[in-house]
Amino acid sequence: MCSSDLNCVSLPHIAMPARRAKSRDAAMDFIAVIATLEDELHAGASVGSALSQARHTSPLHDSGMRNDEDGPDWLSRAAHVHGLPELDQLALALSLAARTGAGVDSTVAHITASLQSRIASRALVAQEMAGTKATIAVLAALPVFGAVMAGMLGAGGLRWLVGTTPGRACT
Fold it and tell me: How many Å apart are CA 143 and CA 145, to the nearest integer?
């Protein structure tokens, strides 16, 4: 359960802070970039032209990245900006492939699978933690609810809690 000051985004069965949602969206956008890169490489394009095409057709084209960076540098910078180490691995593989002419099809496929696995793991952890977060919120609100109920019944629970020796011992 998100507090009101976190600016939460609600997904099916998941409530997460907006920064995590942005990270997930960036990762999904990079999966689209990698898929385009993979398609271009399968079509026979060179590494440089395939990465350039993937970069310019992606929703991340104007994501604050400098336009003068070449493909591997752009991916490496994006890895650090978005916290996705798989992109740094991809940048290294593409740089090596561009220098040596080695094939990168299987490497791109493995990096895509790794990124998708990371996204799925994060979503699963968020789902699993949702129940625990809700329990914490209920348990945190329970004493306040009890004090309000005691006040409504005229029991003076708050006065007892701060005004008597046993009450002070409890706090």
Answer: 5
Q: What would the two tokens of residue 32 be?
A: 């689209």
SS3 109: helix
Indicate the angle between helix axes 71-82 and 18-42, nearest 10 degrees: 160
CA distances (Å), 8 to each of 23, 64, 126, 140, 152, in order?
13, 24, 13, 19, 33
Show the tokens assigned to 68. Answer: 């003068």
Place of tokens 């019944």: 153
At 57, which helix (H) or strand (E)? none
**N- to C-terminal Cα separation, the chain:** 27
Pairwise CA distance, residues 74 & 87, whole Å: 10
> pLDDT tens per residue, the chain (171 residues)?
444 444 444 434 444 455 556 666 777 888 888 888 888 888 888 888 888 888 877 665 555 445 556 678 878 887 888 788 888 888 888 888 888 888 888 888 888 888 889 888 988 998 999 999 999 999 999 888 887 888 888 887 778 778 888 878 877
15 three-class SS: strand
Amino acid at 140: A
- CA–CA dist 79, 100 (Å, integer): 23
- Residue corresponding to tokens 């793991």: 121
